[in-house]
Amino acid sequence: MKAIRFTVLTCLITANFHLFAQEETRPTVAILDFEGQGIGVQEVQTLTERMRTEIGNTNAVRLIERKAIESIMAEQGLAQSGCVSDECAAEVGQLLGVQFMINGSIGKLGDSYTIDVKMFSVETGATERSKNVTHDGDIEGLLVEMQILAWEIVGLSAPPALKLKRAGESEKPTVAVLDFEGRGISMMEAQTLTDRFMTAMANTDRVRLVDRATMGDVLNEQGYSTTECTSDECAAEVGAMLGVQLMVNGSIGKIGNTYTIDAKMFSVATGAAESMKNLSYQGEVDGLITEMEILSWEILGLQVPKELQEKRRLGTQAFLQQQAGVAPKTQVGALIRGVAFPGLGHLYANDRKWAYRWMGTEAVMSGLIYVAYSTYQSATNDYNNHQVLYQSETDIDLILEHKQNRANSKAEIETANDQITILAGIAGTIWAVSAVHAYLNGPGSEKKKKKKKEEKKAEPEPAVEEQALSRVDINLAYDPTLQQAQLKFSVPLN
Hints:
Layout: H1 2-24, E1 28-31, E2 35-37, H2 41-58, E3 62-63, H3 66-75, H4 86-96, E4 100-109, E5 112-121, E6 127-136, H5 141-153, H6 160-167, E7 174-177, E8 181-183, H7 187-203, E9 208-209, H8 212-221, H9 232-242, E10 246-255, E11 258-267, E12 273-282, H10 287-298, H11 306-314, H12 316-323, H13 331-340, H14 344-348, H15 352-392, H16 396-440, H17 446-457, H18 464-469, E13 473-479, E14 484-490
Parallel strand pairs: 1-3, 1-4, 2-4, 7-9, 7-10, 8-10
Antiparallel strand pairs: 4-5, 5-6, 10-11, 11-12, 13-14
Helix pairs in contact: 2-5, 5-6, 7-10, 10-11, 11-12, 13-16, 15-16
């Protein structure tokens, strides 16, 4: 029995020794009352005490009690409020036998409050860590700032609850948003759209939103990434750790040419869904930005601003152009550019397919005109040569031969000239037709509006009209009646 008692006693002594040793590994710290500049002594003491209490909550240091500091100060004939220099603080620290001292100042400048705090070594006088913060608001907000500084001055990150407390007004519900799950879109796209959703929700000024960095810290502590926590259970767990009232999660998917967005906001305390929203969208992927902005208002049960409604109606690009003061694209603008050169009006209307068709057709016509002109030039040179030989020749047979060659060259000149005239006329017609086509299919045209409506409903099969428009018939054939080559060109306008 004695052996058992001895063993138990030994274990207890060993355990207490280890605990004491662990306790001793923490540095000893004393905090002097901050210096007040523009605020009352009692307010400064209250704020200093709040920091002292919070530093104790960090459990990162061994803190000397205020009474012990006051006792030493009294023995030295000093008051805490009078010991503001680093030299005085270091002297007090030596008397207390601590490793570090913390002192600082709290001032007021206009409507802003400033806090400067420093922790330095008593032995060397070297600054271990220094922090400062500026607070715009009521003096009560300094209580939270002192709590946050208490963690930061000892080298720790402040708890999310304190950061949330700093973030906004207490009457606003606290909300955290997890990254939406991407289904058919990339992770980067899903994160970008989630960020836009969070920004828009913050702009409502109806909730206090947890920033991504704070939420990321909590997720990392739990061994999660922002993309792995997609279930309601995980979201509720993260929400409880963040100390928020509401959590928002959801998914963004793609089925064919249709994007779907599903979002849910639920209570962390009860798990009950507060609001659920879903929508479908057809169009370019950048249009999802506007949809996410609108969704952030709708899920909170708020009226969507007219600006966002207009952005959805016009499209992102047109809306941004309008905001920047850029004139919207018009049919007349397409016509003017089409008159300048075939295809430019279609490029202006972002119709690259037709732009390249018209440019290609005009390039073909230019090539044919060049060939005809080369033939004309060659026949002209031959005619001039035969003319010179005809005038200088004395032999009757050769004279007749040169005369015939001259006649043949003249016929080639006339044929080539006719071809140039015809081809130039066709090229001019194509030029004019392309300009008209650019106008009829330009921005704001009925055809464009109809096409957009069809794209929003569903991806349509190529219409007969579009199939006809996609055909440009160019045929080069020899006409035996006129005894010359002819180019036949046709393009439907409707």
